[in-house]
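Recap quiz, item 2
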Amino acid sequence: SAVISQKPSRDICQRGTSLTIQCQVDSQVTMMFWYRQQPGQSLTLIATANQGSEATYESGFVIDKFPISRPNLTFSTLTVSNMSPEDSSIYLCSVGGTGEAQPQHFGDGTRLSIL
Amino acid sequence: EDQVTQSPEALRLQEGESSSLNCSYTVSGLRGLFWYRQDPGKGPEFLFTLYSAGEEKEKERLKATLTKKESFLHITAPKPEDSATYLCAVRMVSSASKIIFGSGTRLSIRP
């Protein structure tokens, strides 16, 4: 399976600021996904990022708050904008999962705390 | 509404004490069910995919089974290193890629 690297692994930020999280994959993939995992909770899909097109956002998530870039088939970024303490979460990138019920594979996530 | 429910929320076992974790789902057409293991500070690690009722998959002390409404993750003679959160996720026929996760079961194995 693909090796997925996320940067930064953790950060502590001030409210009102923005942070961009990077996701790098060691092979070309069609679809990349961004998830949020709030403390003690399961994973919630934020958006699906395809190369060369606009990201598709899930209900409750908007582009102004979580802009996503997908410049090529091995890289994506998620920006968390105008952060508040409620944005304190783990943000995870995943790849794969298309075709006949193929699983998604995950990076180790970015642990974000907002003061 | 498509939904995935896992039980129990937490399970504490003695080393060697076998048990099962449950994942029940209500979706409009199942395309695949996935089990993941998540250790603290890590992303989910893929364990199994199940496609159809009656299917079983095994890996070391773990066996996953699937019926039309639920899946079980059986753990036989667990060891402390099996302690983790186990997540179930489903993909529907209506979705090419999106998967829905359950809330997970936190498994703790005491030596």
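Chain A is about 0% helix and 50% strand.
Chain A touches chain B through 25 residues (CB under 8 Å).
End of item.
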